[in-house]
Amino acid sequence: MTPVIPDDIAALKKTIREEAHARRNAQENKDELSKHIVEQFMGLPEYTKAKTVLFYVDVRGEVRTRQSLPAALSSGKTIVIPWCTETVELALFRLERMEELAIGMYKILEPRPELRLLPEKQVDPKTLDLVMVPGVAFDRRGARMGHGKGYYDKLLENARPETPLVALAFECQLFPEIPIATHDVFMNKIITEKAIYLKK
């Protein structure tokens, strides 16, 4: 169930979301900047230590991750990606080869339908040691704004409380302050092409 947000905060969120989308769409050199951002993610001590890591697969103007997935898959770690179920929730899929992905209904790269429900491909969120999180807008405190559907909020509720949450974003997606509600989850770190911001 989507949380009820007061009208003034909802309007502010809508304005920020629209501005963030416009900035992100206008961002140049996305491939080059994305490569640098994901390299920083994979250079984190948390990544070195982690055995099971959740990667998102980029859509639209997000920081691009798919170009870095082959390197992650060859790292010896268990690589997990989320996919959206028919009940509009995120399920977790153990990815072992890029060939297990295909372009889905909304032109999103996702697990092949015939593989999704195989028992050996199912992953419990509590086994995640590190979570890469996408988003539309962020502030330097670690506050995050998604698309407003709460997909990641629901998923992250089921992860271990101590699991580090690291968001990837372009610097243009940062705002002075993101309005937050009680259910919102803060990021431990936000990585952009310019800096790594720590939760305040």
Total count of domains: 1
N-to-C SSE series?
HHHEHEEEEHEEEHEEE
CATH architectural group:
3-Layer(aba) Sandwich
Strand order within the widest sheet? 3-2-1-6-9-10-11
Shape: globular
- Residue ranges: pLDDT <50 for 5 or more in a row? none
User: Separation of termini?
Assistant: 29 Å
CATH homology-level superfamily: NagB/RpiA/CoA transferase-like
Q: In percent, how helical is the residue content?
A: 25-40%
Short structural description:
The protein is an alpha/beta fold and 200 residues long.
Topology readout:
Elements: H1 7-26, H2 30-42, H3 45-49, E1 52-54, H4 69-73, E2 78-84, E3 90-95, E4 101-103, E5 109-111, H5 113-116, E6 130-133, E7 137-138, E8 144-145, H6 151-157, E9 165-168, E10 189-191, E11 196-198
Parallel strand pairs: 1-2, 1-6, 6-9, 9-10
Antiparallel strand pairs: 2-3, 4-5, 7-8, 10-11
Task: Give your account of this protein's structure.
The chain has 200 residues and is of the alpha/beta class. The protein has a single domain (7-93, 122-198), classed as NagB/RpiA/CoA transferase-like (Rossmann fold, 3-Layer(aba) Sandwich), CATH 3.40.50.10420. Helices cover 27% and strands 20% of the residues. It contains six helices and eleven strands. It has helices at 7-26, 30-42, 45-49, 69-73, 113-116, 151-157, and strands at 52-54, 78-84, 90-95, 101-103, 109-111, 130-133, 137-138, 144-145, 165-168, 189-191, 196-198. The strands form three sheets. The chain has a seven-stranded mixed sheet with strand order 3-2-1-6-9-10-11. A hairpin with a 5-residue loop joins β2 (78-84) and β3 (90-95). The longest helix is centred in the N-terminal third of the chain and has 20 residues, at 7-26. The radius of gyration is 16 Å and the shape is globular. The model has no long low-confidence stretch (mean pLDDT 92).
